[in-house]
């Protein structure tokens, strides 16, 4: 028997999966004109994935730009032309009113009017002048900042600007870009297809973290814990291995398959790793440093509480009950019953029983008794 490190591993198969996948879709209805990327290609954030027909969008943009130019001109007209003219009209009407008022006052202060008719005519002329002043004042107020005509012109300008921005935004939607860096792993459209908003067109696997998803038998659930290390390999490169670490254990058990989903994070994915590849992982379920180890083949009744081994002691085979600890593959940890340096009789010596005489052949690395086939009591 020797002391050595014993690692218990749990072998499971699964597949490669990114923590999430990005579904790429269009925000507008349109006809696909060109797809500049191929499935399996690595793209950067902002790279163009597909182009939609932009002829209608360009026509709408020209129309919106014309409406904006008209709105700008309208507001400019109010500021530069209409308001100054209204102010001139107000000044002229004010002058006329002042002259008419002075004329009326002089006639009234002097000899008066020749007749009631002439007085009524003078009053009517005065009222007309006053009405013209009020009208001119309203025109000035309407075309000044905050006035009704000025606000209307501003509103038309804002509406035209918003319409142009909406048209340009729609035109921007005609170019579908990658929302983040990744690998294009799926595509359902071709040039000439009509796309609808919200319909999945492409699937992007983001660059970064990679998970391995495996299912383990629920009987082994107690052997797995978050943080455990593992070594993984893929069928396509069986001689290559890479490290992984358990980072998620599904709290629910699949009742139909009696298994539990476990995810392992790959911190440094190898370049050959692809989405959905089949992977085999060896999870380090437990580690026993510098412990007594015996080959499982040499332990009798290993799977029972009455496990025992034959040791070579004083030239005879001796049966010793042992307490078995961790079991991993072809090796088992012995907690009690034998000591370091004891010679274990291999089970291949079927004819040897407790108390039989033995001839021990020592070698430089002997850890078990050499039992001749002719061993007798």
Pick out its properties.
34% strand; rod-shaped; disordered C terminus; 29% helix; 3 helices; six-stranded antiparallel beta barrel; 377 residues; alpha+beta
- Strands of the widest sheet, in order across it, are 1-10-13-12-11-14
Shape, principal axes of CA atoms? rod-shaped
Distance between the termini: 24 Å
Q: What is the rounded Rg?
A: 48 Å
**Which percent bin holds the helix content?**
25-40%
User: What's the helix-strand series?
Assistant: EEEEEHHHEEEEEEEEEEEEEE
Contiguous helical run count: 3
Arithmetic mean pLDDT:
85
Largest β sheet strand count, sense and barrel closure = 6 strands, antiparallel, barrel
Structural class: alpha+beta
Structure characterization notes:
The strands form four sheets. This protein has a six-stranded antiparallel barrel with strand order 1-10-13-12-11-14. Strands 2-9-7-4 form a four-stranded antiparallel β-sheet, with no helix packed on it. Strands 6-5-3-8 form a four-stranded antiparallel β-sheet. The protein is rod-shaped, with a radius of gyration of 48 Å. The model is unreliable at 363-377 (pLDDT under 50). The longest helix is centred in the N-terminal third of the chain and has 55 residues, at 55-109. With 377 residues, it is α+β, with helices and mostly antiparallel strands. It has helices spanning 55-109, 116-143, 148-173, and strands at 2-17, 22-25, 30-34, 42-43, 48-52, 175-177, 182-187, 194-195, 200-206, 210-217, 229-234, 237-249, 259-266, 278-295, 308-313, 316-321, 323-328, 331-336, 343-344. Helix 1 (55-109) packs antiparallel against helix 2 (116-143) and helix 1 (55-109) runs antiparallel to helix 3. It is built from three helices and 19 strands. Helices cover 29% and strands 34% of the residues.
